[in-house]
Structure formats: C-alpha cells, structure tokens
Amino acid sequence: MNDILKFIGKDNCKVVGCLDQKILGIAPIQEANTGDLTFCKKSDGATSLLQSTKASLVICDSEIDIKEVKDKTLILIKRPRLWFIRVAKKFFPPDSQSSIHPTAIINWPCVKIGKNVKIGPGCTIGFDGFGYEKNEEGAYELFPHYGKVIIGDDVEIRANVNIDRGNLGDTVIGAGTKIDCLTHIAHNVQIGKNCIIVCLVCIAGSAQIGDNSWIAPGAIIRNKIKVGKNVVVGMGAVVTKDVEDDITVVGNPAHRFER
C-alpha cells in the first residue's frame, strides 16, 4: 500500500481508510475480493459500488462524495482510470507478448516499423493497394506500387487490420496511434499522431487524418478527404467532405454535430 501511495504521490491524492492493506491482485469493482485493487469513476451508482465492493484498495474519483468506509482504503484522485492503469502496469505488469504476432503477414521490404510497436494476429501490412485504371479494351490494369508503410513509435495495431503500401508515396501511421480490429487503411493514407481508430473503420486511398483525432466504430472516410486535428468522427459516419479542426461529425453523409 505504501509503495502505491509513494508511486502516485501523496500530494496528488486524498486517502480515506486505513493504510494497512495488503494488495495481491486486480479485479473489476463488482467482482473484487479482499486483497484486490480496483478503480471507480464518478457515476450515479459510484457511492453504492464503493460501499458494496470487497476490494481492499479502490482508486476513485475525487468528486465522489464519501467520507467513511469499512474494511477498505480509497485513494481519491482526479482521473482514477488513468491512475489505475499506471498503478496496475507498475505493480502487476501484464504477461509480456511478442511485439509482432506470428500470424501477422508483413511485406518487410515495404514496411518500416518504429520502436515499441505492437501488431496483432492476422494483420496484413505492406502489400499493394486497390488502385486500377481501365485500358482501351475496358480491362483494369493495376497502378504500380513503389511506396512503403511507415509506422511510428508506440503504435498499436490490433487483430486483422490491413494497411496497404503507398503507390508513389508512402502510407504513414503517426506515433502513438492505436488501431482497433478489422480496420482497413488504404494506400497513401496519412494518419497523424495519437489518433484512435476504433474497429471496422475503412479509410480510403490518400485520405489524411490529423493528430489526436478519434474515428468511431464503422466510420468510412472517402478517398482524398482531409480530416483535421482533434476531430471526432461519430459511429458509422460516412465522411465525404473535408473536416476542419476541433469538431465532431456524425451521420451519412457526415455533418457537423451541434450540441
């Protein structure tokens, strides 16, 4: 317990309850038992959860109104989920995993990968994109691909993601970006830093996504579209026009969401 408090910093939090707790593991708040660490965000049922949980240590929102608990300790702090992540990684590190899953298929001559990159099972990265030109006889000829896939540091790519190499330029995934399962990223797409691309997203050729943007499940970004920085693209949105910085777009076709 004292090691955890030292890690968090006593000046950053308030402690309710005794400090003489032995922490042996982590668990969800509803399933936790004596010896477990868990967390609790502010919600309508937060006070009830804190009173009923059997966890020995709860990292919880500093705005929760609770003054006394029995048989447990609360660490009251802003952004409790973030601090739970940090504490859990520090004191209960997950089992180590290969950075690149053995079932991922990577066209190595055409892919450059930064530091601390994780690539999940079933991914295909660095192969030709889907670009054709109709010839005089009406048959389709594949546009030649000379580019690469450039993946920045600290990128995480979950299961069954496809990322095409560029044709003349490169496909780029910015540092810190996280890409969820079953996402398709076409040739020459440029994704900025610290973006979240949630599952089942399709980003068509030469589209650009600005830094710190969030693309929700099932969204489609049309080819050559520019999505600005700090943008939220809503669930299932179909983006057919450029999106300026710092806004949320929803719907089909996607339009600005006014709160």
Low-confidence stretches: none
Strand order, sheet with most strands: 8-13-16-19-22-25-27-28
CATH topological fold name of the largest domain: UDP N-Acetylglucosamine Acyltransferase, domain 1
Write down the domain tally: 2
Give the tally of β-strands: 28
- What structural class results from the helix and strand content? mainly beta
Taken as a percent bin, the fraction of beta residues is 25-35%
Considering the protein shown, what is the CATH homologous superfamily of the largest domain? Hexapeptide repeat proteins
Largest sheet: 8 strands, mixed
Mean pLDDT: 94
Instruction: Give the helix level as a range of percent.
Output: 10-25%
**Rg calc:** 23 Å
| Annotated CATH architecture of the largest domain | 3 Solenoid
Secondary structure tally, helices: 3
Distance between the termini: 43 Å
Q: What's the CATH class of the largest domain, please?
A: Mainly Beta
Shape: elongated
